[in-house]
Amino acid sequence: MQWFGGRESDNVEEGSSSGGGRGLFLGGGALGLIGVLVYLFTGVNVNGLFNSGQPDQSQQQNHKISSANLTTDQRFASVIFASTEDVWTSLFNDMSKTYTSPTLHFFTDGVDAQGCGFASSATGPFYCPADRKVYIDLAFFDELSNRFQSPGEAAKAYVIAHEVGHHVQNLLGLSAKVDAARQQLSQTEFNKLSVKLELQADFYAGVWAHYVQQARSKGVVINRADIDSALTAAHAIGDDRLQQQSTGHIEPDSFTHGTSAQRAYWFKKGFDTGDVRQGNTFGKREEDSL
After folding, report:
1. CA 158 to CA 226: how far, in whole Å?
2. Which of 130, 136, 178, 132 is nearest to 156 (CA)?
3. Cβ 263 vs Cβ 257: under 8 Å
4. Which residue has the higher pLDDT, 89 or 182?
5. How far apart are CA 255 and CA 249, in angstroms?
6. 3-state class of 160 per DSSP?
7. Mean pLDDT, rounded, of the chain
8. Parallel/antiparallel/unpaired status of strands 133-136 and 103-106
9. Which of 69, 96, 129, 211 is the most exposed place for a label (fewest CB within 10 A)?
């Protein structure tokens, strides 16, 4: 994967917290995942969709990062983030809409996400709809490589593109619809809705990769081997695989992100088609037979 020298995003900041704010719900409940291991790849911090108060920000100062002060991992993430800005700005223009970029927020150990509460690094990357920020402790990249056996820059890029996919959902009003439905569904039924939300974010990540390959984003180049690496990452973080690894058994009713096969299917469909209109995971689930 080629990225060095590509445009870096201006929408990057950092800030960490030692605690405070609302506790992030781990396992069961809002996200329906079993234990911290399964929760490591959250996709979206759904806690922020349903919680209205403000966390205590007194222990955290957020500030923009100068390009000259970026680490290699931060620079990589910033370039990939910029490529999502390029792709989605173009696609929103095609839909006669305006794309407004989220902010990429780096943190270490813990962070107070405005509107979503306190999160530790164990949470993994997440998107907070309330403040339109993608949060990531870059130590997760080591987890992705070592614990999930998904090494390589393309796997890392997939993670970032997936989180941005949740921002796209937010801009298109899908997150608000899920929020409204939450109050009317049982936990099992809401988990099924959460799976659809996550699979669509996987699809949007694939759409991003499709257009990067077509050079709609300057400075980032991906090839077929990179797509295979991203597919490996999508497969590695399916609910069924993670539950089997962490608990020794699988509980489909608790799935909130989709099976390994489903996640890989929707990412590949986004990559193959590049057609935003074909990402309606909320309709008939064509991949149910996988």
Report:
1. 10
2. 136
3. yes
4. 89
5. 12
6. helix
7. 78
8. parallel
9. 96
Q: Which residues pair with 127 in a beta bridge?
A: 134
Rounded mean pLDDT, 3-16: 89
Distance separating alpha carbons of residues 114 and 70, to the nearest angstrom: 24
CB 107 within 8 A of CB 15: yes
E strand intervals along the chain: 12-14, 63-64, 103-106, 110-113, 117-120, 126-128, 133-136
Q: Are 267 and 158 in contact (CB under 8 A)?
A: yes
pLDDT at residue 52, as a whole number: 35
Q: What whole-number distance in Å separates Cα of residue 59 and Cα of residue 8?
A: 28
Statement: residue 264 has pLDDT above 70: yes
Q: Give tens-digit pLDDT for 138-170.
A: 888 888 777 766 668 888 999 999 999 999 999
Reply yes or no on whether the pLDDT at 238 is more than 50: yes
- C-alpha 82/C-alpha 77 separation (Å) is 9
Q: CA 22 to CA 19: how far, in whole Å?
A: 9
**Among 1, 53, 46, residue whose Cα is nearest residue 22:** 53
Q: What is the model's pLDDT at position 54?
A: 41
Record the tokens describing residue 253, joined without a space.
């009713």
- Centre a 10 Å sphere on the Cβ of residue 29 and count the other Cβ atoms it contains: 12
Q: How far is CA 150 from the centre of its chain?
A: 16
pTM above the 0.85 mark?
A: no
Indicate the residue type of 187.
Q
Sign of CA dihedral 32, 35, 38, 39: positive
Q: What is the pLDDT of residue 97?
A: 97
